[in-house]
Amino acid sequence: TLLDRMVHLLSRGYVLPVVSYIRKCLEKLDTDISLIRYFVTEVLDVIAPPYTSDFVQLFLPILENDSIAGTIKTEGEHDPVAEFIAHCKSNFIMVN
């Protein structure tokens, strides 16, 4: 799918353009929320610290959106959304 290609681009180094585009889609409300949820789940599967502050500033607000974070299903004790948010809050100064 197109979102799989975007995750692939992200994994090849086009992080900020891809995440910026997805964030705009979320803000404009012109994309089905389940697609953004799918993107977030796939991204969380391929990323690992250390994260750049630019990435955190773009990606964290997507995760903190109630339509995203509150509805991503987790298996067992592993909660990648909570882990990413906790990592960011303990390693970055968050500016709104």
From TrEMBL:
Cellular localisation: Nucleus
Keywords linked to the UniProt accession: Elongation factor, Nucleus, Protein biosynthesis, Repressor, Transcription, Transcription regulation
InterPro entries listed in its UniProt record: TH1
One cellular component (GO) term of this entry: NELF complex
Keyword Protein biosynthesis: yes
Pfam family, one: TH1
A single GO BP: negative regulation of transcription elongation by RNA polymerase II
Identification of the protein by name: Negative elongation factor C/D-like protein
Naturally occurring in which organism (per UniProt): Callithrix jacchus
One term of GO molecular function: translation elongation factor activity
Record bears the keyword Nucleus: yes
Family: Belongs to the NELF-D family.
Taxonomy, superkingdom: Eukaryota
